[in-house]
Specification:
Elements (H helix, E strand, L loop, with lengths): L9 E2 L2 E2 L10 E8 L10 E8 L5 E5 L1
Antiparallel strand pairs: 1-2, 3-4, 4-5
């Protein structure tokens, strides 16, 4: 994860902070949730933001 710079993000015009440690810098990535994880839901894509400080991952459906 250290290969790219962590950044601050706004969600609905509000600064995003990690709910675990309060840090405000995250690494952005994309993920795909495959069928079988949720039987009533098809595959879906998400954006993940990983806290630079504590590595907590926040998921946002895309």
């Amino acid at each position: 994860m250290g290969k790219k710079d962590a950044k601050s993000f706004l969600i609905k015009e509000k600064q995003l902070f990690c709910p675990i440690c309060g840090h405000d810098k995250f690494w952005k990535d994309e993920a795909r949730v495959e069928k079988g994880i949720g039987q009533f839901r098809p595959d879906w894509e998400a954006v993940t933001l990983t806290c630079e400080e504590c590595r907590h991952i926040l998921w946002f459906e895309h």
